[in-house]
From TrEMBL:
Keyword annotations from UniProtKB, A to Z: Membrane, Signal, Transmembrane, Transmembrane helix
Protein name from the UniProt record: Peptidoglycan DD-metalloendopeptidase family protein
Domain G5: 235-316
InterPro entries per UniProt: Cell_wall_metabolism_enzyme, Dup_hybrid_motif, G5_dom, M23ase_b-sheet_dom
């Protein structure tokens, strides 16, 4: 039974030694940094030696167990135990970069532990820190240092996105959705200062904070709702409701009156119109400064509009618009005015040289006064009253088509050219009279 007692002594010595080592680790005094051998380590050495001497097989079992246990680092920050990370160079180098960038002091102690596969050592490697999260509908948008900082961020974002509405008598603004702040513990890389957090919420793409482009804070953008994936849009929406007074022009109406004294198609303004105006109180709903809804809630007329009165011609027998040339020929054989031949007699129209049988057309709308033979030297002629004191005469025709009393339209066939009456050869005599006096017909062609 002596070997059992010896074994119990070994186990007790080992347990005591482990407890003392663990206490040193918690106090940030790693045992491997101690220069002298403490009594506990001496006892551990003696007990271990005794165990090997007494039970060599037991020592082999302990060595095998250590060989199959992973190597980890206990991490301390400001003397406080943080957690475990794998004892790997890439992990420690990454932690050192974070520590340098954020001014963090940390220490580690090597241990051999069996850690469950579900243990999340990444939280330890990112130095978990107390912070405040700004959330939209319970989804995190950005982390900042404190609740006052978070409130400053939200106030600055609201001020930036709420519009300055010109002429508004009352404006209220609020965030769209359920915006909250809450205390959390996150890796220090996630935490932004208030100004940086504001820029991230307002300008998701352009807010590339120096040294943090690959940090979890930047990765927040990738986990936003699909409806917020437009990189040009802020991550928060501010809805504003403003009551605005606007002066609105009220258009006048046009009243048309038929007038048989005017040619069909002509219009004449007899009373000019002008717009009125009114003042409207308008409730506008805006999102991030853009109007999405407008509603008139009251209206006050300042000046009534004055309607315009326009006479619209209905007389198809009255000249209107441009005049047309009376035939297809364009050669003037005798112009309007005094003739050099025949004793300088006055020629009241123009003679257009065309062969007998060339079509002759009305040069404008009008009513036929006379059609047929004229004994005054015009031969077969057509005389048309074009309205406004203007009459047109077509003489020396071979045949007349129009009839007295007929209403003719501009360009309508009225007969054919010839050499009847006092004519020296085939031509069309075209004449224009204003109030019975012949005038130069060229402006009426």
């Amino acid at each position: 039974m002596k070997w059992k007692a010896a074994l119990q002594g070994v186990k007790g010595a080992l347990a005591t030694a482990r407890q003392e080592v663990k206490a040193k680790q918690i106090l940030n005094r790693p045992s491997h940094l101690t220069s002298s051998i403490s009594p506990s380590r001496s006892r551990m050495f003696i007990a271990g030696t005794a165990a090997i001497v007494v039970l060599g097989s037991t020592a082999t079992l302990v060595a095998t167990q250590v060989a199959h246990t992973s190597s980890w680092l206990q991490v301390y920050r400001s003397g406080q135990y943080v957690g475990l990370v794998p004892n790997q160079s890439n992990v420690t180098l990454g932690m050192e970069r974070i520590a340098d960038g954020y001014g963090i002091q940390f220490q580690t102690t090597s241990v051999h532990e069996n850690i469950p596969s579900t243990y999340n050592w990444h939280e330890t490697a990112s130095f978990p820190t107390q912070a405040v999260v700004i959330q939209l509908d319970d989804k995190p948008l950005v982390y900042t240092t404190s609740k006052p900082a978070a409130q400053k961020v939200l106030n600055d974002v609201k001020q930036a996105l709420a519009p300055k509405v010109k002429g508004a008598s009352h404006v209220t603004s609020q965030f769209v959705g359920h915006v909250t702040v809450a205390a959390v513990t996150v890796g220090i890389q996630n935490i932004l200062q208030a100004d940086d957090a504001t820029r991230l919420l307002l300008h998701p793409v352009s807010s590339q904070i120096a040294g943090r482009s690959s940090s979890p804070a930047a990765m927040l953008l990738k986990s936003s709702d699909e409806s917020r994936q437009n990189p040009l849009q802020p991550l928060l929406t501010v809805q504003s409701v403003a009551t605005v007074t606007k002066t609105v022009s009220v258009p006048y109406h046009v009243t048309y009156v038929d007038d048989d004294a005017l040619a069909k198609g002509d219009e004449k303004v007899v009373a000019a119109g002008h717009n009125g105006n009114e003042q409207d109180a308008v409730r506008e709903t805006l999102e991030n400064g853009k109007v999405i809804k407008s509603q008139v809630i009251s209206r006050h007329t300042v000046e009534q509009p004055v309607n315009e009165v326009v006479h619209r011609g209905t007389n198809s027998g009255v000249a209107s618009g441009e005049w047309v040339w009376p035939t297809v020929g364009t050669t003037i054989t005798s112009p309007f005015g005094e003739r050099s031949l025949n004793g300088g007699e006055f020629h009241p129209g123009v003679d257009i040289g065309v062969p007998i049988g060339t079509p002759v057309y009305a040069t404008n709308n009008g009513t036929v006064i006379s059609a047929g033979w004229n004994s005054g030297g015009y031969g077969n002629w057509v005389e048309i009253d074009n309205g406004g004191g203007i009459t047109t005469v077509f003489g020396h025709m071979s045949r007349v088509v129009a009839q007295s009393g007929q209403t003719v339209s501009k360009g309508e066939l009225i007969g054919y050219s010839g050499d009847t009456g006092e004519a020296t050869g085939p031509h069309l005599h075209y004449e224009v009279r204003r109030n019975g006096t012949p005038v130069n017909p060229m402006p009426y062609t």
